[in-house]
Amino acid sequence: MVNQVSIGYFADGPWSHEAFNLLIKDQNIDIRFIVPRSDTQDTTLKGFCEKFDIDYLANAKINSAEFYDRAKSYNCDLFVSMSFNQIFKHRIMNLPPMKTINCHAGKLPFYRGRNILNWALINDEKEYGITVHYVDEGIDTGDIILQRDYSISDADTYKTLLNRAHRDCADILYDAIKLLQEGEADRIVQNEIHPVGMYCGARGMGDEVINWDKNSRELFNFIRAICYPGPKALTYCDGKEVKINGSRLITGAPVYIGTTGQVIGRTGSGYLVKTLDSFIEVFDIETDAKLRIGSRLQ
Questions:
Q1: Tens digit of each residue's pLDDT (9 = 90 or more) over 41-90
Q2: d(C-alpha 76, C-alpha 98), whole Å
Q3: Cβ atoms of 27 and 50 closer than 8 Å
Q4: pTM, entire model
Q5: Burial 76-105 (b: 16+ CB within 10 A, else e)
Q6: How many CA atoms lie within 13 Å of 228's alpha carbon, on the beta-carbon side?
Q7: Which among 244, 250, 242 is positioned nearest to 277, based on CA atoms?
Q8: What does DSSP say about strands 100-104 and 127-134: parallel, antiparallel, or unpaired?
Q9: Which of these, 148, 114, 140, lies nearest to 194 by C-alpha position?
Q10: Quick one: which of 55, 53, 47, 45 has its CA closest to 76?
């Protein structure tokens, strides 16, 4: 017989909603409280708490003595983090007997850090990973409980990966909790996979600006990596913003030297733009600029 496991859920956003829907249906999992991000815009989790009579601990400073005492009173077996933005320090992460786990949309020990799906596309990866791991005092460095790989094709964009990851993160997190509950979870030390690993920094304002002195493949990856619901790739024409939400590689485009960023043709849906090696089609464009053949995007 499987023992019931009680959890404290530190979560936010659509990543956490899918997982909650799986957890709440399992009679052997008891969610005793939810802690949202302190700057949350997510009303869905609060609604879940009201519907299922779960304590909603807003504006919690999770490493404070006050929160430690309050969390201790719930007698949780496990803390679970999903899209949460506070760093767990030693005392709070080790409070529950089964410790604290996190779901990370990256193939640890690679792609630690922030904005992982964007970086995976920018780096032309053919797959991305999702990892459930123990929280330790590093950033995404704890022992791995469960990890799965998912393919990336040229048809994928940030939007398609994000939609898939919302569902896939929920599934793998639920499966990892069940392994822990049943006492069948492995612990894989990350430096046994790679002694160094890698980190990705958060993307910020200005990172969406296109550098046309890149080859077609790099630009294609960049544009699809930050398409909606990202900020969209940004360039300028005659001082006016040009936002580009999509691009397409041109099969058989010759390699030649030309003026990078120059509009060299029109298509049924957009424009052809010269790149470092050849040219790409850009489409789904927002601008007040008058784009024409010969225009220079900068």
A1: 889 999 999 999 999 999 999 999 999 999 999 999 999 999 999 999 99
A2: 9
A3: no
A4: 0.93
A5: bbbbbbbbbeeebeeebbebbebbbbbbbb
A6: 7
A7: 250
A8: antiparallel
A9: 140
A10: 55
Using a 10 angstrom Cβ sphere, with 0-12 exposed, 13-18 middle and 19 or more buried, the burial of residue 239 is: exposed
Within 8 A by CB and 6+ apart from 181, the residues are 2, 3, 5, 28, 29
Interior angle at CA 147, CA 146 and CA 149, nearest 5: 155
Which of 291, 236, 252, 239 minimizes the C-alpha distance to 269? 291
How far apart, in whole angstroms, are the C-alpha atoms of residue 79 and residue 135?
Answer: 10
How many angstroms separate the Cα of 10 from the Cα of each of 13, 36, 62, 101, 140? 11, 6, 10, 10, 16
Would you say 125 and 152 are in contact if contact means Cβ atoms under 8 Å apart? yes
Q: What angle do CA 183, 28, 175 make, to 5 degrees?
A: 55
Q: Within the chain, how many helices (H) and strands (E) appear?
A: 7, 14
pLDDT digits (tens, 9 = 90+) for 185-228: 989 999 999 999 999 999 998 999 999 999 999 999 999 999 99
Residue pLDDT, tens place only, 169-185: 999 999 999 999 999 99
- Report the alpha-carbon distance of residue 8 to residue 24 in Å, rounded: 12
Tokens describing residue 241: 């913003």
